[in-house]
Amino acid sequence: MKRKLPNKIHIIGSVGSGKTTLARTLSSELQIPYYELDNVVWRRSENGDIRNTPEERDKQLHHIVSSNAWIVEGAHHKWVSQSFQHADMIIFLDVALSKRIYRIIKRFILQLLRLEKANYKPTFKMFLKMFKWTNDFERESRAEILYMLSQYNDKLFVLKDNGEDDMSHAHQLKKSKYLQNEKMS
Questions:
Q1: What is the pLDDT of residues 31-83, one digit of tens each?
Q2: How many structural domains compose the chain?
Q3: Residue 93: helix, strand or coil by DSSP?
Q4: How do beta strands 50-51 and 42-43 pair?
């Protein structure tokens, strides 16, 4: 018996874990819109990004999670409990630090060469911040997130880095019993 495909998916993981790649893949295959939490936190403009107030940010997230189908992805965890609560499935990307560092470097180079789109200006300062964030994730956030998500074990799917290419997370999900369906084959 095949399970009903999830319509509300929250993807969480560190910088460089593959959240956006997985969100785009699932969005395309499931025909569900995806949202980057960074674009909920920041109001994007050509003159520079402006941080939304917590009230604006929370209102935007509430609007997203109140809809019938969505995929939300981001590293944020302290203010997204309503997304975890409403999600049919929570995916935690548990990718090795070395692979995340490689991806951060690769992404920065591709963005500088304008071969990959960025929601932000790819500066050296931003590049260094990403290393700080991925190290902070390793030291603090990973344990906090796993503790926070323990109450959602019935809908939590932890994807470990299996050393394959960047599409390996989507492949792992397709093979899982949770997402077996003709639409994902």
A1: 999 999 999 999 987 787 889 999 999 999 999 999 999 999 999 999 999 99
A2: 1
A3: strand
A4: antiparallel
